[in-house]
Design a protein that fits this description.
It is built from 19 helices and 17 strands. With about 525 residues, it is α+β, with helices and mostly antiparallel strands. It has helices at about 25-35, 65-75, 125-130, 140-145, 155-170, 175-180, 195-200, 200-220, 220-225, 230-235, 240-250, 315-320, 340-345, 365-380, 380-390, 395-405, 405-435, 440-445, 450-470, and strands at about 80, 85-90, 100-105, 115, 125, 255, 260-265, 270, 280-285, 290-295, 305, 330, 355, 485-490, 495-505, 510-515, 525-534. The radius of gyration is 27 Å and the shape is elongated. Helices cover about 40% and strands about 15% of the residues.
Length: about 525
C-alpha cells in the first residue's frame, strides 16, 4: 500500500486504537423484464472501470463501498481518531442504498479532539491548481471560459481534475481506498431526471437547473478533451467519470476563510446538522492539519455532525447535497420579484433572511419587502420614509408604517402563500399520479428513483407555508403559548393598532398599545393577529 507521509503532526492528545436510491438486484431484473430492455437500467453507469491491470475503481451505481479498507488506509496514513470514533453503515429504508456516518461510542468532553487528518491527505483546490495549472492547460481554460464559467469556478474545476487524475491512477493513487469508499449514487439536482425537474416548485426548480447547468459546464466534453494529462478512457466517457468527480467535489468539499476548497478524508463522513450547536467544530493548525473537536459534552451514541450550508434553506440542501433535512427550522419564503434593486437588498432580500419558519412565523425582512412592494405602487412618500427609517434604525417610524399598511401587506402575504400552495399542490399531484407514494413501485425505482425524496421535500415545504397561512389568516386563533414576546395587530371595524406583549415569570401577558377598551371601560370587540413572535 502506498502511504502518504504526514508533516508536522504532533497530536498525542488523541489516543490510538445525504438520501439516495439504487434498485436492488431483484428490482433491476424486474426493470428489465417490465420494460423489455436489452441494456442495463438508466441508473447504472455504462462504464465501471478503466483498465484491469490498473485495478481501477468501480463507479457503477451498484458498486460496493469499501468502508473497512478505507478505515485501515486512514490509520496507516496518520489519521487519528478518538477512542470510540465509529463509522455506522446502515441501509436507507427508503432507497436501499448504504449510508455511512460518524458517531461516538463513548462520552466525549467539550473541547476534546475527535479527529485529526494530516495536511498531506487533504485534497484542496489550491494544491490542485498548483499541481495541474500549467501552460498546457490554457486551451482547456479558454474552452471553459467560452462555456460561461467564471474565474471562481476554476477552483471546483481543478479539484475535479485532481479527483479525475486519481481515479485514472487506480490502485496507484494514494487516495484509492478513500475513493473506493465513496457513494456512487446521488439524489441531488445534478442526478435528477427531466420528469423529476417537472415535479419541483419554481424556486427549487430554478436552483436545480442552475446546479445541472453548472455540472454540464464544468464537465463538458470539449473542455475535458483539452486536458493533456487525462487518458482517453476518461475523455471518451466524460458523462460517467466527470459527473462522479463533480459530485465528489460539490458534495464533500468545504470552503475555508481564505477561499480554498478542501476535501478532508474521514471528516467528510460527518453528517449535516441543523441545530444551533452541532456536535463537531473544526479548525486547521499552523501546518494545515485538520483538527475536529467536540463542540460541547457529547454522550455516547451521539451522531457527529457539522453544517454543510445554511440550515434554513432545505431547497438548497436538496439541490446541492441530495438530502432533506427535516430538522430545518425555516425555509425561504419563495418570493421571486422580477427585479431586485438596492433598496430591496438593503431591506434584507436574501435567501437566508427571507424566511418562513416552521412555527408559521414570518421574518421581519419578508414583511419589509411586502411593504416596500406595496408602497412602490401606492405611496412613494411612505416608501421613501420606510427606507429612511430602515437605514437610520428608526424602529418606531418603521413600525408605524407597518401598522398603517398592515391590511394591504398581510393580504399580499396570504395571496403569495395561497399561490405557492396552489403551485406546489400541482407538482405533488403530478408525482402522486405515477405512484410516488407506492414503496413497491418498480416504475418509480427504475425510472425516477429520486422522486420520493423530491415528494417529501414538497410536502415539507407545503406544511411550512400552511403553518404561515394558519397563523396569519383572518380567522386564525392567536396562539400565546409558543412565544414569550409577541407583536399583535388589533383591529375593529374602524381602525387597527399595534400592541407589544411580553409574558412575565408567572405566565401572565402584559401588553402596551393596541386599541384599548371602549370609552366606558368595557372590552372592545376586536380581532387579534400575531405579526411577530419570539
Amino acid at each position: 500500500m502506498r502511504q502518504i507521509l504526514t508533516k508536522g503532526l504532533a497530536l498525542a492528545c488523541i489516543s490510538s486504537g445525504a438520501t439516495g436510491f439504487a434498485p436492488s438486484f431483484g428490482d433491476q431484473a424486474q426493470c428489465l423484464s417490465k420494460h423489455n430492455r436489452r441494456q442495463r437500467p438508466r441508473t447504472m453507469l455504462r462504464i465501471s472501470s478503466l483498465s484491469v491491470e490498473n485495478d481501477a475503481i468501480d463507479i457503477a451505481e451498484n458498486a460496493a463501498r469499501e468502508i473497512s479498507w478505507m478505515e485501515s488506509w486512514a490509520t496507516d496514513n496518520g489519521i487519528q481518531r478518538i477512542d470510540g470514533f465509529n463509522l455506522v453503515e446502515e441501509k436507507n429504508d427508503m432507497n436501499g442504498s448504504k449510508e455511512v456516518y460518524a458517531t461516538t461510542l463513548q462520552d466525549v468532553a467539550a473541547g476534546s479532539p475527535v479527529l485529526v487528518v494530516p495536511e498531506a491527505l487533504i485534497l484542496s483546490s489550491s494544491k490542485a491548481m498548483a499541481e495541474l495549472r500549467t501552460p498546457e492547460m490554457e486551451e482547456a481554460e479558454a474552452v471553459l471560459t467560452n462555456n460561461g464559467a467564471f474565474e471562481s469556478e476554476y477552483r471546483h474545476w481543478y479539484l475535479m481534475l485532481k479527483v479525475l487524475k486519481e481515479i485514472q491512477n487506480g490502485r496507484d493513487s494514494p487516495w484509492y481506498h478513500w475513493l473506493n469508499s465513496l457513494p456512487r449514487i446521488y439524489t441531488n439536482a445534478a442526478s435528477m431526471t427531466d420528469f423529476c425537474m417537472l415535479c419541483l416548485p419554481p424556486l427549487m426548480r430554478k436552483l436545480a437547473e442552475e446546479e445541472r447547468e453548472n455540472q454540464r459546464r464544468l464537465s463538458s466534453t470539449e473542455s475535458i478533451m483539452s486536458v493533456p494529462f487525462l487518458s482517453d478512457d476518461i475523455k471518451y466517457h466524460t458523462m460517467d467519470f466527470c459527473k462522479w468527480a463533480y459530485q465528489i467535489v460539490y458534495t464533500r468539499s468545504v470552503e475555508t476563510e481564505d477561499g480554498d476548497l478542501k476535501i478532508v478524508p474521514m471528516a467528510d463522513y460527518f453528517n449535516h446538522g441543523s441545530q444551533d450547536y452541532t456536535e463537531v467544530a473544526a479548525s486547521y493548525d499552523d501546518v494545515g492539519n485538520y483538527v475536529a473537536y467536540a463542540a460541547y459534552d457529547l454522550a455516547a451514541g451521539s451522531v457527529l455532525r457539522t453544517q454543510y450550508a445554511d440550515p434554513r434553506n432545505p431547497s438548497h440542501l436538496l439541490a446541492r447535497y441530495g438530502f432533506l433535512d427535516e430538522e430545518c427550522p425555516a425555509t425561504y419564503c419563495k418570493l421571486l420579484p422580477p427585479i431586485v434593486n438596492q433598496d430591496m437588498i438593503d431591506l434584507g432580500y436574501a435567501y437566508d433572511r427571507m424566511l418562513f419558519y416552521r412555527t408559521g412565523e414570518v421574518a421581519d425582512e419578508v414583511w419589509d419587502l411586502f411593504l416596500y412592494q406595496h408602497l412602490s405602487m401606492t405611496n412613494i412618500d411612505d416608501q421613501q420614509a420606510l427606507m429612511q427609517s430602515h437605514r437610520q434604525g428608526d424602529y418606531e417610524t418603521k413600525l408605524a408604517l407597518h401598522e398603517k399598511h398592515y391590511a394591504a401587506t398581510s393580504s399580499a402575504l396570504l395571496e403569495h402563500v395561497d399561490g405557492f400552495i396552489e403551485d406546489i399542490n400541482k407538482v405533488i399531484k403530478k408525482a402522486e399520479t405515477i405512484g410516488v407514494t407506492d414503496p413497491n413501485s418498480i416504475y418509480i425505482k427504475c425510472e425516477h428513483p429520486r422522486l420520493p425524496l423530491i415528494h417529501r421535500h414538497n410536502l415539507f415545504v407545503r406544511e411550512t407555508f400552511q403553518n404561515v397561512r394558519s397563523r396569519y389568516s383572518e380567522d386564525a386563533d392567536v396562539n400565546w403559548r409558543d412565544a414569550t414576546r409577541v407583536t399583535v395587530q388589533e383591529c375593529d371595524d374602524n381602525e387597527c393598532a399595534i400592541a407589544e406583549c411580553v409574558m412575565d415569570f408567572q405566565g401572565n401577558w402584559l401588553c402596551e398599545g393596541g386599541l384599548g377598551p371602549n370609552w366606558d371601560g368595557s372590552e372592545r370587540e376586536k380581532t387579534k393577529t400575531i405579526i411577530a413572535a419570539q
